[in-house]
Amino acid sequence: MSNANLGWLFYKDYYKYKDKDEYKDIDYLNMDSPQNEIIIKEKVENIINQSITIEASEPLGNIHFKATTTYPGLLLGSGYNHQLSIKEELILGFDFDYTSGLPIIRGSSIKGVLKSAFKHWEYVSEISDLKSEVKVKELEKEIFDNGDIFFDATIISGGKILEDDYLAPHKNSKKIKDKNNNLIADELCNPTPLRFIKVAPNVTFRFDFLLSDGIISEGKKRKLFENILEDLGVGAKTNVGYGKFENFSIIKTEEEKQEDKLKLKKEKIDREKQRLEDIEEQKKIKAIKASDGINQLLSCKDMKEGMKILNSSFGKKPELTNDEKDIVKLFLKGHSLTNSQKKFFGKYNLDI
């Protein structure tokens, strides 16, 4: 929560002033009154100099990430009416959450920015690893028509979050000569500074979504959304740099962190269980192979063939049971071994 409700200051208190402990309206009958200019200037300064304390709120949905505004800042709700024709006034409207009074990025605006990126399927294809226009269109339908939910993005960093800025249109009343000696309007003549407020740079917002796995996983959807928001920005005047974000990072609730820990623990147990099962399976395969080899050796008379059977059945580091050793000894009975054959059978620990 803020120390003062910025939305109330901007849309309610802004139009009144306090005189002798009594709130009175701005003098609408005399808009050029110097008193009006003083009142508005004080109110604007009060709004932009508020230092905000944020109360932690529980994220909505199942996917959350934070991102920080960059220079020159973020414009929200600039199309709302907020003009009195008083010098130093704030000429543009602004979008504040009704309850907290803090600047807010509506979920509908976030959804609109994300959806606009899908007009360019090659761009979405590049950042999502989908290789065809058909797949991108399927993903678009899945995200925007089949249940993924976009919540409002809220501020999670405190301190001074608003700043003022200026537009400077020119009246072009002065004429100058161009290179052909023709009179043209002087584009830099008579600038008229017009004041407005913006979310300052280095303010952090939390973005919340309820996403599901589909053509791509919910995690890849999150990364896709981050890339689009980083590239396109949010709010007004993004074409001149407003509304851009940086330092995107995942946020996990305590409950989600505990779920992740349990998931990792289960995965570790499952991996160990699978490892032991694989060992047992290998033992069974090895035992079957050894048994088949011993059975073949019982009917084998040729030394070279017998050595080949043993090598294939027990490998380079054989481990024979006593019964298997007895059968190998039986096979060797009656054979005169060369030095190389003695070396070969020596690894079977036959005591020959």
Q: Give the CA-based shape.
A: elongated
DSSP strand tally? 14
Q: What is the end-to-end distance? A: 88 Å
Q: What fraction, in percent, of the residue positions are helical?
A: 40-55%
Output the helix-strand order: HEEHEEEHHHEEEEEEEEHEHHHH
Count of DSSP H/I helices:
10
Helix/strand-derived category reads alpha+beta
**Radius of gyration, taken over Cα atoms and rounded to an integer in Å:** 38 Å
Q: What is the oligomer described by this structure?
A: single chain
Biggest β-sheet description: 6 strands, antiparallel
Overview of the molecule:
The structure is a single chain. The chain has 352 residues and is an alpha+beta fold. The chain folds into 2 domains: 252 residues, no CATH class; 65 residues, no CATH class. α4 packs across α5.
Considering the chains and any ligands shown, give keywords for the structure.
10 helices, 352 residues, six-stranded antiparallel sheet, two-stranded antiparallel ribbon, 14 strands, alpha+beta, 2 domains
What can be said about this structure in brief?
This protein has helices at 6-11, 34-48, 107-117, 121-128, 133-145, 218-232, 254-298, 303-314, 322-332, 339-346, and strands at 16-19, 22-25, 51-52, 63-69, 104-105, 149-150, 153-155, 159-160, 162-167, 175-177, 183-185, 194-199, 204-210, 245-250. The chain is of the alpha+beta class.
